[in-house]
Amino acid sequence: xxxxxxxxxxxxxxxxxxxxxxxxxxxxxxxxxxxxxxxxxxxxxxxxxxxxxxxxxxxxxxxxxxxxxxxxxxxxxxxxx
Length: 81
Hints:
By secondary structure, the protein is α+β, with helices and mostly antiparallel strands. It has three helices and three strands.
């Protein structure tokens, strides 16, 4: 029979301080999709925050993609207080 390889889980990402402040991380996007999504969430009554990604936000194989770090934004939302 074949050998079973051990399952290696990736390490937990560091805690996101924005989530601790009540923001909900939605997704990472760029260009028109980002702007359309921002506008939609604002029309729905959400506060919107756009943050640049860090290397930890990218897949392992994209960790050195400096263009992605400069172009993409992570969209966070929060209900007004």
